[in-house]
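FORM 7B: Structural annotation worksheet

SECTION A. Query
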Amino acid sequence: MARRLLDAGHEVLVWNRTPEKMSPLIDRGATRAETPAEAAERAEAVITMVSDPEALRAVTEGPDGVAAGARNSVTVIEMSTVGPAAVSRLASVLPAGTGLLDAPVLGSLAEAESGSLKIFVGGPVQIVDQWTPLLSALGTPMSVGPLGSGAAAKLVANLTLLGVLGLLGEAMALARGLGLSRDTAFDVLATTPLAAQAERRRPAIESGEYPARFSLSLAHKDANLIADAATAAGIDLRLSRAARDWLADAEQGAWGDRDYAAILAWILGTGAPPPSPS
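SECTION B. Predicted structure
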């Protein structure tokens, strides 16, 4: 995402909790910030993209955090998948007058590299309009409502992704258990609402290779965020619990660093686990 902004001609300051990850961006023309606070002091817009709510607190709060360096003229654009509660907390720690959008993305490495992410943007219309050109360098922004709506929309989208993967894995396991060949199972699935996902995932299922794009541990984190949000809203999501259980079991089985789609291999119990990403 930072490379996309550099390629679009923006001046980019970068900071990362793992300093060596900044080096390729510095080589491409980015400027190193020593702390998130320094980045916020020097920028017009601050984009946060981290793994979970705890990481967001670590980079936005405290004497070196984004909030400490934010000025009235800066807008913070929170693009991580952290849930509405984390966005609300971030809003509470930023100085009065600081702009804030929540804009999590749908997509992984390939979409980030190509600038084809789907971006769910929550926040005041005026601020959304102001920063839509910047976000358009990263993908397709979709305004979904007031602050917090982006985080909510991302949980809705991720619920469908995790649920479909779990259902596909179970459908393949049932077909095998009832004696259908793999080819026949895929022919049957091609006639169902799972057709597109079955076609997309077939090469991985057949080869047992799941290239690392988005880790299973992060997918489990997202499933937990969905569960927390549903509990807070008083909503019973039974299928979501089942998908989360599959992810929890796989992570406990030391598959957390594998791609989240490897949950299919876990459900199918296909023997040797896919190779860990190098």
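SECTION C. Observations
The chain has a mean pLDDT of 95. The CA atoms of residues 212 and 272 lie 17 Å apart.

SECTION D. Sign-off
Analyst initials: ____
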